[in-house]
Specification:
By secondary structure, this protein is α/β, with parallel strands linked by helices. The protein has 15 helices and 19 strands.
């Protein structure tokens, strides 16, 4: 085992070590994809939509494998990508601190290395879980040290197929329109990447100013002295409830359908490299069986999140309290459950997300062609699951597949590297534990596709390569030089 005292300290030293590690591994690989232009406009080999954790590690893997001509687009300002400092309201990450996450197998790129470099090993030893703000600072550092090509403030309004097999991305930036031509597109768009927040239809009965989803921007300071209701008891619901209480809510009521809160995180309990690399190889019925069971059991909210809420006397948990009615009464809402009626001034829906391609206007041109699991796989008896049925049926590199063969060949150039890929590939795209393995699978698939597509050019390069290894003076043909003793014998 290495002596930890010989390891460098401080970010400067850590970055020097990372540069040395990359140099020893000859990374990133040299660029090798032939450049393309269309009518004088350069073609980008890969456009990654989303500059959060998934988008960054996808970019890092592509760069590592020599796909230098790629770009990451994110609509958020720099430093606000993803949920960490926007709608995430937990104090710390829910994942254990030691997970290597997006480090791509490089020790000097791990969160632990970053944290110890900034705060020291004793602080790391004392740390329970990563504070979300420091995790965001780590991702900002990650982007900088790897020199990843991220453009902020860019929205992708539409992805369109072209007759030449390429893709047009219609983008907006500061009121200006731009069209980027790309060979491949990666959707690194997070939990709601193929849909959006799920809110039950019953919410239509109440004024939009009186409710929000946990993914919305919420002015919690305005809830001081108010009665707040929260529907659901998952991690996000708990974090929003705690934030409302800490902002001074006078009363908080949390409504939960279940008889008790889930206590066991089933999928985490069987986490292993076998699950990471083996899930995609399961027969379809077993993929469905695993995920349907895990989703039915539900993931418990973290214990610290629950204690954060229950520490307030004005917090009230209502179990077996499905919402049967919502009514607007003047300046407040009345929530009805089988156990009673509860007046609240503001209601927060912790009801998760849904997969709904019709909710993604940027994919409108492709939506009719995208094959979902329900299009080819009969739901097993007794295992109805709307989220799984609506999940995209993906290829080996997370690429969309056609609902009708031959209807939209360009579809295979779009890769779904976000949460809805879980049924096809396992949990490789939306959570910290296996995000590097997911990005590796994605990047290798894109590399394979690019090389195969450019095979004629690569063969031309093979034929044209003429740099000699031997100069011709290393050896001579034995028949052209006759030894003197042999020469005398012949005479």
């Amino acid at each position: 085992m290495s002596d930890l005292s010989t390891f460098p300290s401080g970010l400067d030293a850590l970055e020097a070590r990372l540069r040395q590690d990359l140099a020893w591994l000859e990374l990133p690989a040299k660029a090798w994809v032939p450049a393309r232009t269309v009518n004088g406009q350069p073609v980008v080999d890969v456009v990654i939509i989303g500059g959060g954790m998934a988008g960054l590690v996808a970019s890092g893997m592509l760069k590592r494998l020599g796909v230098a001509n790629h770009v990451v687009l994110d609509k958020a300002p720099a430093g606000q990508e993803g949920p960490w400092v926007t709608f995430a309201r937990m104090r710390t990450l829910r994942s254990p601190k030691q997970l290597t996450g997006p480090a791509m197998g490089l020790p000097a790129l791990t969160f632990r290395a970053y944290y110890e470099a900034r705060f020291g090993r004793e602080e790391w030893a004392a740390l329970d879980r990563a504070p979300r703000e420091i995790w965001m600072e780590y991702l900002i550092w990650y982007r900088r040290v790897l020199e990843l090509p991220v453009r902020n403030g860019v929205s992708v309004d539409a992805v369109l197929p072209r007759e030449d097999g390429l893709l047009d991305l219609v983008c907006s930036e500061d009121g200006r329109k731009e069209t980027i031509i790309a060979r491949h597109v990666v959707l690194a768009t997070g939990r709601d990447g193929l849909g959006g927040p799920f809110v039950p239809a019953i919410a239509k009965n109440i004024d939009r100013g009186h409710w929000a989803h946990t993914a919305d921007e919420v002015d919690f300071s305005a809830l001081r002295g108010k009665r707040v209701g929260v529907i659901g008891a998952g991690a996000s619901a708990m974090d929003n409830a705690a934030t409302a209480l800490e902002a001074g809510a006078a009363r908080l009521d949390m409504f939960v359908r279940r008889k008790e809160l889930p206590r066991v995180n089933k999928f985490t309990g069987i986490g292993s490299q076998g699950v990471v690399h083996g899930f995609a190889g399961l027969p379809d019925e077993w993929k469905w069986r695993f995920l349907n069971y895990a989703m039915g059991e539900q993931t418990p909210p973290p214990r610290p999140s629950v204690l954060r809420v229950s520490s307030f006397d004005q917090a009230h948990l209502h179990l077996e309290s499905a919402i049967t009615g919502l009514e607007q009464e003047g300046d407040h809402i009345v929530v009805t459950t089988p156990k009673g009626r509860y007046p609240v001034d503001f209601l927060i829906f912790g009801t998760g997300f849904k997969i709904d391609l019709t909710n993604r206007p940027e994919l409108a041109a492709f939506e009719p062609h995208i094959r979902l699991w329900r299009d080819r796989f009969p739901t097993p008896a007794g295992m109805h699951n709307a989220e799984l049925e609506a999940s995209p049926d993906l290829g080996e590199a997370f690429e969309f597949l056609e609902r009708d063969r031959g209807s939209c060949p360009t579809l295979a150039k779009i890769h779904c590297f976000n949460f809805p890929a879980t049924l096809s590939h396992g949990k490789l795209t939306g959570d910290i534990p296996a995000i590097s393995e997911g990005a590796d699978r994605l990047a290798r698939g894109i590399v394979r596709s690019l090389f195969v597509a450019d095979r004629e050019k690569h063969f031309e390069n093979l034929q044209a390569f003429d740099t000699p290894e031997l100069l011709g003076d290393e050896w001579t043909d034995a028949e052209t030089e006759v030894p003197a003793e042999l020469s005398s014998e012949r005479t």
